[in-house]
């Protein structure tokens, strides 16, 4: 399915000369306010509780480069505070259990649904399906998110959301932008870590795009020779926002002297548990709705000791099958890396180009086909 001696998902380094100086934007708190305006009331309540943290963190320097934050729009802030409502703080367990069983095609087996703690109030899954566009703004080759101009990209994403909503009307479909915030590099860079952190100004652009269609945002990390312990905390001020979630990519987690792209990397359950624990602590300390953690996987060896992966009420783990190729190869990979090694929720990636690279691969998989998978994916990613 893949050339495992050199990852075919690697599309070349992003040159540091391509990254401009940081410019002023609406500011982190300004973006947070804009995002909260269209979110459910439980998120507005979370915003009120987390407001002191935003006020402090919005004053911090950028993790990638120094920048000044824009001014807070006080009228918008006052409006949020004035119209906030307090909602109940429990989930409907009957609906939750029904939906979890539905994702297993109503077959309660030893694999699916996976026994997990009940999610905290405000959890997105399994009450929604997420349809995401993936990529990086500095590269047209890393995914649809950076390939098209923003208006065209967002319109196309909304079209995919509608297709999925029409295909399954039982749960609401949410759009998302899945942005690679830390990219693996073949050049070691000054830090000798074989990774490049995107400037905050670029992340802010993605956040602003998301506000146009009320989309979720996922910030993805390709560690190279760095670690999740070094990279995740640098995104803390973004992860404090209720609609910002996290993705981690084992493919580019290198060990020893291996250069990203030469072979497929790996994360152990211990690495994934660190990410989950970090998010859980962040949610609890700041009274946020639960976070979604996406872990990419197209090969069993990319995740070791999967049975040791911990689940939390306030973190929802999606194992996302991101292999490309013919239908047969994708389905086989899904079976061995997702179905047979259950963690919590399932995801599925569709490649606009790589899935039809061979003339024999007539077209990309359609929603009805993906919805027939066992288990049914709740996270769909397009690259």
Describe this structure in words.
The chain has an eight-stranded parallel beta barrel, surrounded by four helices. A two-stranded parallel sheet has the order 6-8. The protein is α/β, with parallel strands linked by helices and 383 residues long. Strand 9 (315-321), helix 11 and strand 10 form a beta-alpha-beta unit. It has one domain (16-382). It is 33% helix and 16% strand. The protein has helices at residues 28-36, 41-57, 74-83, 93-103, 144-147, 150-167, 200-213, 228-231, 236-239, 269-286, 327-339, 367-370, and strands spanning 128-135, 172-184, 195-197, 216-221, 244-248, 267-268, 291-297, 303-304, 315-321, 345-350, 379-382. Helix 1 (28-36) packs antiparallel against helix 2 (41-57) and helix 1 (28-36) runs parallel beside helix 7 (200-213). It is globular. The longest helix is centred in the middle third of the chain and has 18 residues, at 150-167.
List key phrases describing it.
16% strand; 383 residues; two-stranded parallel ribbon
Largest beta sheet: strand ordering: 1-2-4-5-7-9-10-11
C-alpha Rg, in Å? 20 Å
Overall number of strands: 11
Number of domains: 1
Helix content: 25-40%
């Amino acid at each position: 399915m893949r050339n495992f001696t050199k990852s075919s998902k690697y599309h070349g380094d992003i040159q540091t000369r391509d990254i401009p100086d940081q410019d002023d934007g609406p500011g982190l708190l300004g973006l947070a306010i804009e995002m909260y305006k269209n979110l459910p009331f439980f998120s507005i309540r979370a915003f009120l509780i987390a407001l002191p943290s935003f006020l402090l963190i919005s004053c911090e320097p950028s993790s990638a480069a120094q920048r000044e934050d824009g001014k807070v729009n006080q009228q918008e802030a006052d409006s949020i505070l004035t119209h906030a409502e307090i909602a109940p703080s429990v989930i409907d367990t009957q609906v939750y259990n029904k939906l979890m069983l539905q994702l297993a095609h109503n077959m309660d087996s030893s694999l699916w649904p996976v026994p997990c703690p009940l999610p905290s109030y405000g959890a997105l899954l399994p009450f929604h399906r997420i349809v995401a566009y993936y990529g990086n703004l500095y590269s047209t080759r890393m995914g649809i998110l950076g390939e098209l101009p923003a208006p065209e990209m967002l319109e196309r994403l909304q079209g995919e959301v509608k297709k999925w909503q029409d295909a399954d009307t039982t749960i609401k479909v949410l759009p998302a932008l899945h942005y690679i915030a830390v990219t693996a590099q073949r050049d070691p860079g000054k830090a000798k870590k074989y990774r490049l952190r995107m400037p905050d100004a670029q992340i802010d652009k993605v956040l602003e795009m998301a506000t146009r269609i009320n989309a979720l945002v996922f910030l993805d990390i390709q560690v190279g020779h760095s670690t999740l312990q070094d990279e995740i905390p640098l995104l803390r001020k973004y992860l404090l926002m209720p609609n910002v979630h996290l993705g981690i990519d084992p493919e580019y987690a290198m060990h020893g002297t291996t250069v990203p792209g030469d072979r497929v990397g790996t994360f152990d359950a211990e690495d994934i548990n660190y990410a989950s624990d970090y998010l859980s602590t962040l949610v609890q300390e700041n009274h946020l709705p639960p976070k979604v953690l996406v872990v990419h996987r197209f090969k069993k060896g990319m995740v070791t000791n999967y049975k040791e992966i911990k689940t939390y009420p306030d973190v929802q783990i999606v194992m996302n099958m991101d292999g490309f190729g013919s239908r047969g190869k994708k389905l086989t990979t899904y079976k061995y890396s997702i179905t047979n090694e259950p963690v919590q929720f399932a995801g599925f990636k569709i490649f606009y180009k790589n899935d039809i690279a061979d003339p024999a691969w007539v077209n990309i998989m359609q929603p009805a086909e993906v919805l027939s998978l066992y288990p049914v994916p709740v996270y769909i990613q397009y690259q």
